[in-house]
Design goal:
By secondary structure, the chain is of the alpha+beta class. It is built from 17 helices and 18 strands. The strands form four sheets. Strands 3-2-1-6-5-4 form a six-stranded antiparallel β-sheet, sandwiched between helices. Helix 2 runs antiparallel to helix 3 (98-116).
Length: 634
């Protein structure tokens, strides 16, 4: 009769609910906090990386455009043709040499056009000399009298002494107001002092590029990121972009903020718009080549909108999961106590349900389950009783199986083919009839050695040296029987003498060759070879012994080889000792015994030779210690 104690069940249920709920809440809160912190940091880093990448890409694009202008300037700077024609142009008089002066001017323009290239790398190139002349080519092919000394950029260009001087977008004064294609365009200028071969200043090279080309990448990024504001400022903090006349001052505001607070490039920073006060996320990148700074600003409300949406969704899901968890915990805690009482009765009535070894002394020393619940204490006692019973049953089963396998191995080792005895006794009788007393004596001694070797117990195996001696004795008997029809040789190095192998491993292979292989025309040849080789597949490489038995007989038929391979596969999967037949020392028996000793490291192969006959190969790993056959158990 099942005994129910309501107050205990309620107490147990309450304990389970409180403990499980508390644990689950702690785990959920910890996991949720870590996940949210990770997601928030990842989102912030992603925002900073995206904006920083934008500013870096813009810097790279503008640097590339300025580099193209600089390349054109340097090509003209180092052009011997430009220097020659410019020197000639400056020496010609405007009144006396008008034709030649005009010809030199056109040649100089052609050279400039050649430097600009067919794809018009830059918009305009002007060359000023210090005497008030200018020659230009590009959008406008012109010659004019210009006082370069009066230009506002002259002094700065002179101080740089040949280095490039960049100037922001400006309109060209010599563009006709009626030319509506170019009158509203502004150009970026790159100036540098021009010197001749003696490093004497001769003038200034001015390279002009349409600002829409230099800053074109900013416009393209603005189309893809409509919520972001882009600002480009030169080294002095002057606005280069946006290209409007009255900027709102946001670019310079952010630039001064970066300079004053020494904000790091490539990271996101908080700032406020100077006019609206709206919170902004700004990143910037500066160019060492041009000195320009690109600032990208995005409203925080838009940038953080995915994060804010995720926060609310995460909180809602978290509360929902928490409520569901509490409900499930309450239901589960109420369903545990009933199954526990049923489980107590079920386990108490069981004997053996699984195979598990258990140390009886360890079981006796083990403390009882630390709990205040009677049901769990009872289950603990019933479980220990079941363990003891299982231990006894499994021990008996293992012992029986071990004895069975050992008996089969011993039976195989002590077996001798009765036909072998019949044939040898007939041989002894024939030799006695012929009066071969000494031969009969030696024959009987060899048979006695063989019988003694078979009768000796060797549960732990024998040395390879003993097995080879036994094989030699067997072959001597066969030699007496077959005379000159049998020729054999044994080549096994002494380094393998101490290797432990299963008893009667080699002799059955030799007997198999004589019994089944030598059906053709004699003489029959039998070769036994042994050696040590290194297993290249092992890590680290390991040595193993290998021994082959080769004959020149008829070999194995394809059907026999196929059948043997199938038997090897079936026997090798489980090392089933039931395959160890007592009817004969077959190849399958030898294969299984090798597997029992070496497992996956066993070497066993049966094959036909190309020039006739067959070869049987056996082997296995060499133990680290080779102190003798008695030290290695099978």
């Amino acid at each position: 009769m099942k005994l129910r104690v309501p107050w205990r069940i309620r107490s147990f249920r309450r304990r389970l609910f409180v403990v499980y709920s508390t644990l689950i809440i702690i785990v959920l809160l910890a996991a949720a906090s870590l996940f949210y912190a990770f997601y928030r940091n990842a989102t912030m880093n992603q925002i900073a990386a995206e904006q920083s990448q934008l500013s870096t890409e813009i810097i790279s694009a503008t640097d590339a455009e300025v580099a193209a202008m600089d390349t054109v300037s340097m090509n003209i700077y180092y052009s011997d043709l430009v220097e020659t024609h410019l020197r000639r142009y400056m020496t010609l008089s405007a009144q006396d040499d008008a034709a030649e002066r005009l010809q030199t001017q056109r040649a100089l323009m052609d050279i400039i056009w050649a430097v600009i290239g067919p794809f018009q790398t830059v918009s305009q190139v002007n060359i000023y000399d210090l005497e008030g002349h200018m020659i230009g080519a590009g959008l406008f092919n012109q010659q004019a009298n210009v006082s370069v000394v009066d230009k506002d950029w002259f002094e700065r260009t002179r101080v740089l002494d040949g280095a490039k001087h960049l100037m922001g977008p400006q309109r060209l004064s010599y563009i006709d107001a009626s030319n509506y294609h170019f009158r509203d365009r502004s150009f970026i200028a790159l100036n540098r002092f021009y010197k001749d071969g003696t490093l004497e200043a001769k003038g200034i090279i001015e390279v002009l590029q349409d600002s829409r080309t230099v800053l074109g990448y900013v416009n393209s990024m603005r189309r893809y990121h409509p919520n972001a504001a882009f600002f480009v400022l030169d080294a002095a903090g002057r606005d280069l972009y946006p290209p409007h006349e009255n900027p709102d001052g946001a670019g310079q505001h952010y630039y001064h903020l970066i300079q004053e607070q020494r904000l790091e490039p490539g990271t996101a920073h908080q700032a406020s718009h100077p006019q609206t006060g709206q919170r902004q996320i700004i990143t910037y990148a500066s160019s060492d080549y041009t000195g320009w700074t690109v600032i990208v600003a995005s409203p925080s409300s838009i940038v953080y909108q995915p994060l804010i949406r995720f926060t609310w969704i995460f909180l809602g899901l978290g509360l929902g999961v928490l409520l569901v968890t509490l409900v499930v915990s309450f239901i589960v805690s109420g369903t545990v106590t009933g199954p526990l009482a049923d489980l107590q009765e079920a386990i108490a009535g069981m004997n053996i349900t699984t195979l598990q070894t258990w140390d009886g002394e360890r079981a006796a020393r083990q403390e009882r389950l630390r709990t205040s619940l009677d049901e769990l204490r009872a289950i603990d006692g019933a479980f220990k009783s079941m363990q003891e019973e299982l231990n006894q049953a499994v021990s008996e089963l293992i012992s029986a199986k071990t004895q069975e396998a050992q008996a089969k191995l011993l039976a195989l080792q002590s077996q001798m083919d009765p036909h072998f005895l019949y044939n040898n006794l007939a041989t002894i009788q024939a030799m006695a009839d012929e009066g071969m007393v000494e031969e009969v004596s030696q024959f009987t001694k060899d048979m006695s050695r063989m019988l003694r070797y078979i009768a000796e117990e060797a549960e732990r195996g024998v040395s390879l040296r003993e097995e080879i001696r036994y094989v030699e004795t067997y072959l001597r008997l066969m030699k007496i029987r077959f005379q000159d029809q049998l020729v054999y040789s044994i080549d096994v190095p002494s380094s393998l003498d101490a290797i432990c192998i299963p008893k009667l491993l080699i002799q059955p292979l030799v007997e198999n060759s004589i019994k089944h292989g030598f059906s053709g025309t004699p003489p029959w040849q039998l070769v036994i070879r042994g050696w040590v080789e290194t297993d290249p597949a092992a890590r680290p490489p390991e040595q193993r012994w290998v021994l082959t038995v080769t004959d020149n007989g008829c070999g194995f038929s394809p059907d026999v080889l196929t059948a043997l391979q199938e038997q090897f596969a079936q026997s090798g999967e489980s090392y089933d000792t039931s395959q160890l037949s007592l009817e004969g020392m077959g190849l399958v028996n030898t294969f299984i015994r090798l597997k029992l000793l070496y497992h996956e490291d066993a070497v066993f192969a049966v094959q036909n030779n190309q020039d006739g006959g067959a070869t049987i190969t056996v082997g296995g790993p060499i133990p680290a210690d080779q102190e003798g056959a008695e030290d290695h158990a099978i």
